[in-house]
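Support case: zinc ion complex. Customer-provided input:
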Amino acid sequence: MKRILCLFLLFMVCFKVLEAQENKPKLVVGIVVDQMRYDYINRYWDRFGDGGFKRMINEGFSNENHHFNYAPTYTGPGHASIYTGTSPANHGIIANDWYDKENKEMVYCAGDKAVNTIGSSSSAGKMSPHRMISSTITDELKLATMRRSKIIGISLKDRGAILPAGHAADLAMWFDSSTGTWISSSYYTQRLPSWLRAFNKSGHTQKHLANNWETLYPIGSYKMSLRDNSPYEGAFEENSDPVFPYDLKKLSEKYGFGLIKSTPFGNTITKDVAKAAIKGEQMGQDPFTDFLAVSFSATDYVGHQYGTYALETEDTYLRLDKDLEDLFNYIDKEIGNENVLYFLTADHGAVVVPAYLQDMKIPSGYFNGGELKAGVKNFLSENYGVGNWVENVSNSQVFLNRSAFQEKNISLSDVEKKLSDYILAFDGVAQTFTGTDMRRLEYRKRFAALLQNGYNNKRSGDVLYTLQPAWTSYGMTGTTHGSVYNYDTHVPMLWYGWKITHGSSVVATGIPDIAATIAALLHINRPNACTGEPIEMLLK
Ligand code: ZN
Ligand code: ZN
Ligand code: ZN
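Agent response - structure generated as follows:
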């Protein structure tokens, strides 16, 4: 009798758990498009098909005034911020690479010497999320379902897969340029799942690299870009022009499998491995919400090389639109449209190529970081005697040799003040701040506040500077990102599917609101350091 009662109680518990899951989506698909500026949606609108970006906007919700709330606007901080619902001040991913004050070395946001590559013999898998110090929405989902939810992160870039998948993920996978296949790290698993080993054997990378990269539509129909071979595009090789068609077979002989990352086909293989993961891991097939975090990185490599108004960039987005359509159709078929919640955003935007702006007489410039570094060293030696006063200059921050100043009883905050005045005099520098002020004051004005949200009290530097709008430390061709300005902070924010109403809004929303909104939709806890609020207007 006791046994029957126990069984009955167990049955009731299971029933309750399942009942609680019923009012949840079967799958959340988080999509990040690396370096996607907000304006690309409108610029390429007429050229998109009905099943990709347009499907999300025509049936879902678009927050049209959605911004990052911190700088530096780089890939590592971007992915960490989207999924932790907070900014580098709290999650600790202050850049892609930064100077580690404690160990006196440069560290990589996802680098981890304590783990090993799984799936190849290179070191590209020595990665984990251990430097991200707050929880992600994916972690919270894992906690909420006693680990029953399956969490997978996928991206060409390790950091684009690892940071979104969070600390408790089942698997994150990324592209190994040395093998042309998808790998992981021993942080997650000791062996790649069999479906992924099979996918890796299919030769998908080689297949794409055997062809030319031609424009998807006749080249004359690309009206929303500058002409091909403009002076603002970067070529693969010195003696070649950056023009269609690109002979990928020939180029890959020199650049290897990694070449695919700088073509739209890097996105295509990301989409294909995402489909394989859905099937192989049976995602969305049980009542416990699963989470697939996909980041499309090829858009960033292409943008860096060709710039924001290049034909190559337009073609890459038109092809991504087709890849999205294929992914949506696949998920419709496998899981059902009504059971899936999608969102799409970007990890940062990009500046219009400053050389192009200059040709249009719009203020912009190129900043010489090397000159600044040498100047800082000279300035400190002139003021405090010859010495090793600077440990590192990176990410627009100066890291002082604190112990050297302490030894000589020189006040660090005085040094910071003097140095910040010195740096402000440089051509192209807009603002300077001291680490002491960053820790003690509360900035309200937009750009100072953004910098402060990116300032981690323990990890960030001693003197910080920002450049004037449209100034970069970069080559004369292609684009980059990282600033506090609107071209870097303004990104698309699309919602679609489960419990999402149709509409759009220009009310300001921020990156931290994404995780808060998903938490509200799933009725689970927000990530532990989340600083955003749910975007109520998009809820059905
Ligand atoms: Zn990025
Ligand atoms: Zn071109
Ligand atoms: Zn980039």
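DSSP finds 21 helices and 23 strands in the chain.

Case will auto-close in a few days if no follow-up is received.
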